[in-house]
Amino acid sequence: MKSEKELEQALKISVDKDNIINLAILELQPNLDDQDVFVKLINKAISEILDKNPQKRYKLLVNIIAEEKGKRFSVNSRKIAVKIVSDERLSKTVVIGSNIVSKVIVNFIIKAAGKDGKMKWFTKKEENQALKWLKEE
Fold it and tell me: How far apart are CA 45 and CA 123, in angstroms?
């Protein structure tokens, strides 16, 4: 199992001037225990941003940069992801990726979080469209 420090190096998170939280996933975690800790770290980082200005509304851009085919996602990781995107302070969410398994999981999360119309999947080739959709009110 990896240390939290090692797992933190597999993600990059920042907030831009348009109140878009940019989350880059640099490495997916094949070990399910690591994956659960990794998603908890993501949840903690996003929560810290949201809690700094609780009245402010943000948008979330998740860019799955490093993907591998056939990657599994633990049940616990999916539940935490649903919790993250269900936060009312996130008005819209975009996930950019290329893996069909990731797309299926994201579509599950959209349904489970009740985010139809507020969360979308885009391919890496559609990144400009994704940003345009995210910035629309």
Answer: 25
User: To 10 degrees, what angle do helices 75-86 and 32-52 make?
Assistant: 10
In tens, the pLDDT along 82-96 reads 999 999 999 999 999
User: Residue 122's beta-bridge partner residues?
Assistant: 96
Looking at the DSSP bridge assignments, the partners of residue 12 are 24
Q: What is the pLDDT of residues 48-95, one digit of tens each?
A: 999 999 999 999 999 988 766 556 678 888 899 999 999 999 999 999
Domain locations in the chain?
4-135
Closest CA to 25 of 13, 37, 35: 13
What class does CATH assign to 4-135?
alpha beta
